[in-house]
What does this fold into?
Amino acid sequence: MLRSSWKSVAFGVGLASIAAASCASGEGQCRYNSDCLGAYCHEGACKKDCVDSTLDCPRGYTCSLTAQCVPADGDGTPGEKPQADAGPEGPDGNAPDGGPGPGPDSGTTTVNRALLDACTNDSQCSSGLCKPYYTGGPSRCTKSCSSNADCMQNARCIVLGGQSVCVGNDVGRDCNLATDCSFACLTAQRYCTASCTTASDCPNGYGCMPVGTPAQRVCVKAAAPCGPGDTGACIASSACDQTGLVSSCTLACSSAADCPQRAQGLAPWYCDGVCRRPADVYGPLGNGEPAEYACNASSTVISICNDAQHMNFGAFTVPNPPAVSCAAATTTPGAAGDVCVDSCRYSGGCTFGHACTALGGVGGQRIGLCLPSLGNGEVGTSCTTDGDCFFGYCNRNTSKCSRDCTVDGLCPTGSTCVAGTAPNVEGRVFKRCE
It folds into this structure.
């Protein structure tokens, strides 16, 4: 049986209750903005976007102490009107990312801000609620809620300060203690989780299972490698499935609804007391992890990604697999920049730092992909990759940040939710902010 060269550390299972913080400086690795000196943390590295707001930021924005362009107290919104031209297609050629449309207008007010607008205090928001989009992160205008269904796309309903509000999804974020997370930290496995009824409430790669005492149904990670004596990434030592090509974490289930949910149109996981991967999935590597490869029983080179899909986020291409010796006892790394990418359903969204954006395709239908998000780019500002943009969508027709607004129809001030191109996604017309 093939094994990935990755190692995991064994811990017990539990929910955290106290927060912790770390300190660092310079341009190295980071988890929080406070880890960086005069910069902010983006995808694990300290980054600066500006020094002089006049030269480096859009109109109406100022350069913050963390070297980010943020809304000024006065009037103004970012961006110029984009010029439309042809854009590339999605990774498999079925879901084109294109279609002209109006861009954000400048000169709109920054008081009484709309949902999703950047903010610094409650009085700026029409809803009267300005909350961190994620723990320790920048604030956005949000609203109260009673369930996830009340919330904006890629957000969930969380109790903060005794009030239920919509905040960004942070499932899968690294954590040590409860206050590192919006809901709770699985301290044994060291990632943030969220409450769930079924796995449809969780990102792809996560199932829904009772955990703790008293037991609560929470999102549990299955997208992780394991092996004999190396099961720390799994919810329990008995939850390492060694029947596949690569040993993978799994979880107990009573039906397939408890198991990770792929995009509509892809073969589903199934349940026989534990969650089992579909026949086209050979491994457990999660979204954003470097892709690795092996040979299946037919001596065909395949990726061992959790969703059987991979891409280069920067180039927005699907790299060719490397040369693989089918007799090798270990997996083979892909090319530089080749990472695993999960498909997604809007209901479950994506893991922390990614947004479900419908730029993929399968069987002639559009599907969501978990693309890097939480960059500094507001809707309408210039971008080259999805990771440059806060909402995880760089419209390559215009080289401007956008947002997938298919489900909620919401766009930050200065932009409008307009229809993109066919095909539809999850029975809906694909829409984006322009």
User: Anything to note?
Assistant: The longest strand covers residues 354-362. The first helix runs from residue 53 to 56. Helices lie at 53-56. The chain has a mean pLDDT of 83.
